[in-house]
Amino acid sequence: MSHEGIRYISKEEQARDEHESRPLPRIAMTPAKVRVLLTEGKGLEIEWQDGHQSAWSFAWLRDACPCATCVEERKNEGRKIGQPKAKSADLLPMYQPPAKPAGAQPVGRYALQFNWLDGHASGIYSWEFLRRNCTCAECSFATAEAGSLLH
Ligand SMILES: [Zn+2]
Ligand SMILES: [Zn+2]
Question: How far does the centroid of ligand 2 lie from the alpha carbon of residue 27, in Å?
């Protein structure tokens, strides 16, 4: 028997969903400047047309991959977008180089795609996705506020 279509969500998730679906003005989702700091290995920086500036580390971006496989994996592990995988205590600590892409290319006019060195490249990072997941203090605070509204 399939329970598809039935979705149980917590109040917190509901608040987050509402926050995530709140409409953004077009200028907030249109980059004025995009910089992929490949050689520095730092990450992605975007200056938006509304003047807001965002920056993400490559590690964050890899753990935020919006492809179906990664979304499913995060859901199963209860991880948030950009949250690294929990290191298993049973395993010997293994050195893992921080995620880095070999390159990045625009997808149409609405997104960016990374070719990660681990071979993964199916994530399409739309401008809207990036702006909604801006990690600056101001935006992180706004997201946390939305999550606590119903408590
Ligand atoms: Zn992915
Ligand atoms: Zn921000």
Answer: 14
